[in-house]
Design goal:
The protein is mostly helical and 460 residues long. Strands 1-2 form a two-stranded antiparallel sheet. Helix content is 56%, strand content 3%. The protein is globular and about 70 Å long. It has 21 helices and six strands. It starts with 7 loop residues before the first strand and ends with a helix. It folds into two domains: 164 residues, AhpD-like; 213 residues, no CATH class.
């Protein structure tokens, strides 16, 4: 009546992939979750949708919030507005407008210069110089060399200190992997964010134009079956869980009986690495980045490419030569105190997190499955564990699951609801969110390993 346009939310709940009624309802959470919500609200000034989906796993969320708070707000080598700007640069590489928009407002809130937001070329040269590292970390971290590090540390008046560079690298990897989580879980923008509201009255059909632009179409809701396949009957899905558990049992028995030779293990790794190149999403069309996001980074055509393409041979990164536990952790902790500790805790929680359940089954040891997921991601990045039999990956991860993993980790902006629906059809949404936590942390650690190894080589 007053002529004020009232916004209404476009989505239902914090995720486009998870029905609202299956997420934690604010006001109905337990005491521990309530404390986490309060912490998140105090830190971010809002209860964001990432938190509302991550809270399926409160132990992980607590570690995540603590780490993010330290990176963005506590004492550290970089000024606050630089931190948020680096977050914008990193999220923009994956066209993640959800995270870009959040950090644009945070950047302005801490006194950042609005002119920088018109495009990377308006930011200080020092930040522009970070563009190359941002690009390679996000898409092809195996190409990073000590020469890239040297360029950043030795560019006269715009040079980075080692401590500043470590802070920047951790921020870049944090936001690349958070973009993976955002797309992998179908996080919806909040009502006050761009794309989170409309002024139009509710439409007659169940979806509106924003849904189509966000990659799902009304018809897809009804049959969550993968492209070109028939809907799956409940018994088929139950069989899927039983079959997976049976494979885990058989693999355990084989492990107990005999161990493959080192040569055989190396061959299986190379085979899996090669095969991972042929896993690509069926929805593989190129997405043109929106101008409002693409202005925050250079070279918009640069994206993920498999490392063995076109006869390029990238040497395998052997974990016993350079690992997070023995090398990366101490380097980070020395140059940016406490962050190594926080990251280490977060990696451990994600990797070891278990409720000993699989779909409807209880008292299940899922360590073999978690390790297969983690090592598959590192394998896609050319990282090898000598003591792991890569033959297990093909036994435990089916093709639709591999497509989902590779898309979320390498080209998260191409993730669709169809992909999310097509793997582990009988599992709980909380279990799929758990998968995303593994993807996020394995990806972050892989990027960090390549960057930290290059920094170590530069230092020595």
């Amino acid at each position: 009546e007053l002529g004020i346009r009232i916004p209404r939310p476009l989505g239902h709940g914090p995720s486009r992939f998870i029905p609202e009624k299956e997420t934690v309802q604010v006001g109905h959470e337990d005491a521990a979750m309530h404390t986490l919500f309060a912490d998140s609200f105090a830190t971010l000034g809002r209860l964001d949708n990432v938190t509302l989906v991550m809270v399926f796993h409160p132990q992980y969320l607590e570690s995540f919030l603590k780490t993010q708070h330290y990176l963005l707000q506590m004492d550290g080598p970089l000024p606050l507005h630089y931190r948020h700007y680096i977050g914008i640069m990193a999220a923009a590489r994956h066209q993640c407008s959800y995270l870009v928009n959040l950090h644009v407002s945070d950047f302005l809130h801490v006194g950042g210069d609005p002119k920088w937001l018109n495009g990377l070329e308006n930011a200080p040269q020092k930040l522009q110089n970070l563009g190359e590292l941002n690009k390679m970390l996000a898409h092809r971290p195996w190409l990073i060399t000590k020469e890239h590090i040297e360029q950043l540390l030795k560019t006269e008046e715009n040079s980075w200190s080692l401590a500043e560079l470590i802070h920047a690298v951790v921020l870049l990897t944090h936001y690349h992997s958070l973009a993976s989580f955002t797309f992998g879980c179908g996080i919806s923008p909040e009502i006050d964010c761009e794309g989170g509201h409309t002024f139009r009255p509710p439409s007659v059909s169940n979806y509106c134009i924003c849904d189509i632009t966000n990659g799902y179409h009304g018809g897809e809701e009804n049959h969550g079956s993968p492209a070109g396949s028939l809907p799956v009957s409940p018994t088929e899905s139950v069989c899927e869980v039983e079959a997976l558990m049976e494979k885990m049992k058989q693999l355990q028995e084989c492990r107990d009986e005999e161990e493959a030779s080192q040569e055989e293990m190396a061959t299986r790794f190379e085979r899996e690495k090669r095969e991972s190149m042929f896993v690509c999403s069926s929805e593989d069309e190129e997405l043109a980045p929106a101008r409002d996001v693409s202005r925050h980074f250079e070279d918009t055509s640069y994206g993920y490419k498999d490392f063995s393409r076109h006869g390029m041979h990238v040497p395998t990164f052997r974990v016993q030569d350079y690992s997070w536990e023995d090398h990366g952790y101490s380097l980070v902790n020395r140059l940016y105190p406490d962050v190594g500790q926080l990251l280490d805790e977060k990696f451990h929680i994600a990797y070891n997190l278990t409720y000993n359940t699989m779909a409807m089954h209880k008292d299940v040891d899922t360590s073999m499955l978690r390790r297969a997921i983690w090592n598959y991601i590192h394998c896609m990045f050319g990282i090898r564990y000598d003591d792991y039999d890569y033959g297990e990956i093909n036994q435990l991860l089916d093709r639709s699951f591999k497509v989902y993993i590779k898309t979320v980790v390498c080209t998260p902006e191409k993730t669709t609801k169809r992909m999310y629906d097509s793997f582990w059809r009988q599992f709980e949404h909380s279990e799929k969110v758990h998968v995303n936590l593994l993807l996020v942390e394995a990806r972050m650690q892989a990027e960090l390993l390549y960057a930290l190894r290059a920094i170590t080589r530069y230092m020595t």
